[in-house]
Design goal:
Blueprint lengths: L1 H16 L1 H20 L6 H37 L3 H5 L5 H37 L4 H10 L4 E4 L7 H13 L9 H16 L1 E2 L4 E8 L11 E5 L1 E3 L7 E9 L2 E9 L5 E5 L7 E9 L7 E3 L5 E6 L3 H29 L2 H16 L1 H8 L3 H9 L21 H20 L1 H4 L3 H6 L6 H29 L9
Antiparallel strand pairs: 1-11, 2-10, 3-9, 4-8, 4-11, 5-10, 6-7, 6-9
Helix pairs in contact: 1-5, 2-3, 2-5, 3-5, 3-9, 3-10, 5-9, 5-16, 7-8, 9-10, 9-16, 11-13, 12-13
């Protein structure tokens, strides 16, 4: 441990002597203090909280992630270029301890800077809420819905597989299915159509969602329940939606009238709910008088949220999640600096940043089944003149080369998703800025995955390279 501490201390001294750390400190100060003072919200406490946390912590963690990658790349590759690493390698120091010392130094720097940004972000948010001129009722509602720690409960989807299969067999028997459609794609399309019908609410009709309120360690704590919904209208334009929400818990019914715009997320707060566990039901009644049918997303169209902990605890868990993510970035950067020279390591780190910016597209593409992905992508490579210029000619089938290229793309997306899944699926800031609970078990899982297991694998890889790679010795004077 003394050797690791000595290497980490030396790396810390070199870091704080660099002018880069001063530039990074100024950028983080601007992101945590100056940027929140400049941004404008929609005039509501909820909007201010969401924009403040998303912008402040989002930009700060991006800067820290980028600096962790680049500092990790320079931790070993720069010393190799300066011929100072070779002087360390000839000493009786295990190679893994060299890597650990560099990595721990980055962890300490990230801990200091993230704590600073988190403290400044919390302080500026509190200041803006006090000086925002909001009334007491809206502030109290924001503390219960957005500046909170709410567990999201979803109603189970109905079992429609038998109906979907029966509809598929009927369409196939009548030869109404497209000839180029795979069975999986046809079943998925029929499934979506069935769910769309089940989760639509015509005018003067209603639909009920059922939820199970868990008891946890005992009874559900006293506090409000929040219904969050979003729906689209069949009538184009910006006409308001008029509806009634009825919440039934423990034999009691609580009603709220709703008037909102189509497509706008809506939060409805129900106070005075007695504590306890058991079933709950939410009934949405459509009172539209223009014949508009409302459509809900089956999974997230209407959810029930209940208080579970405090915002302070949720905020600390969010910072812990972001810190573990930075620890993995530091490990990746240090490993890239071990494997490659400084310019190549920096280039690869930029490629990683670009991939992470396309995380939504990559995640969506990787989770589509291979047959559907290949059929959709390969269609762009079809020859438009293969069957003549007739307007009524059916689209030509994709060529073998187009299907092969689409297959390569699929496995490239799938492989990237599987390798970088811990980084691609991080939604910590979104959860924090919407008052969504960050479960402690997720923090514990990420600690084992991003804080121990993956860095250990990268450290062992770097150790093998440090042992096998030939390093040019410094000239003897």
């Amino acid at each position: 441990m003394r050797q690791i501490a000595a290497i980490a201390l030396l790396a810390l001294r070199n870091t704080f002597r660099s002018r880069v750390i001063l530039v990074l400190f100024l950028l983080l100060f601007a992101a945590g203090f100056l940027l929140p003072l400049a941004i404008r919200s929609d005039g509501t406490p909820d909007g201010l909280i969401r924009i403040h946390l998303a912008y402040t912590l989002g930009i700060a963690t991006f800067l820290l992630a980028l600096s962790s990658l680049w500092a990790g790349c320079a931790a070993i590759s720069q010393e190799a270029d300066d011929k100072t690493l070779q002087l360390l390698l000839v000493k009786p120091v295990p190679r893994l301890r060299i890597w650990l010392g560099k990595w721990i130094a980055l962890l300490l720097v990230n801990a200091l800077l993230l704590a600073l940004v988190g403290s400044v972000a919390a302080a500026t948010l509190r200041m803006k809420l006090r000086q925002g001129g909001f009334d007491a009722a809206s502030l109290a509602a924001a503390r219960q819905t957005t500046l909170a720690s709410l567990q999201t409960l979803r109603s189970p989807l109905p079992d429609i597989e038998a109906d979907v299969r029966a509809e598929f067999e009927r369409l196939r028997a009548r030869r109404l299915l497209p000839e180029d459609a795979t069975e999986a794609a046809a079943l998925d399309s029929i499934r979506h159509a069935h769910l769309a019908r089940l989760y639509s609410v015509p005018p003067a009709a209603s639909r009920t969602w059922t939820f199970d309120l868990p008891s946890g360690a005992g009874r559900r704590p006293a506090g409000p329940l929040v219904v969050h919904f979003r729906c689209d209208s069949s009538v184009p334009g910006a006409a308001d939606i008029h509806a009634t929400l009825d919440l039934r818990v423990g034999g009691q019914t609580f009603s709220r009238d709703v008037s909102t715009m189509p497509g706008k997320p809506q939060t409805v707060l129900f106070d005075g709910i007695p504590p306890g566990a058991g079933p709950a039901g939410v009934t949405f009644a459509n009172h539209d008088t223009r014949g508009a049918t409302l459509f809900f997303d089956p999974a997230n169209g209407l959810v029930l949220r209940r208080p579970c902990g405090t915002f302070a605890g949720n905020y600390l868990r969010a910072l812990a999640q972001l810190y573990l993510r930075l620890a993995l970035f530091a490990a990746i950067g240090t490993t890239l600096g071990t494997l490659f020279s400084m310019p190549v390591a920096i280039f690869l780190s930029l490629v990683l940043v670009i991939i992470l910016q396309l995380s939504g597209f990559i995640s969506a593409a990787a989770q589509v089944d291979r047959a559907t992905f290949v059929a959709n992508v390969a269609a762009f490579g079809a020859d438009a003149h293969a069957h003549g210029d007739e307007a009524d000619a059916p689209p030509p089938p994709p060529s073998l080369a187009a299907r092969a290229a689409a297959t390569v793309f699929y496995y490239a997306y799938r492989g990237t998703y599987l390798v970088l899944r811990p980084l691609l699926e991080d939604r910590t800031i979104d959860a924090l800025s919407t008052g969504t609970l960050i479960p402690p078990r997720d923090v514990a899982r990420n600690f084992l995955q991003q804080g121990l297991f993956l860095p250990l694998l990268l450290g062992l890889l770097s150790t093998a390279v440090l042992r096998k790679r030939e390093w040019a010795l410094p000239p003897i004077s």
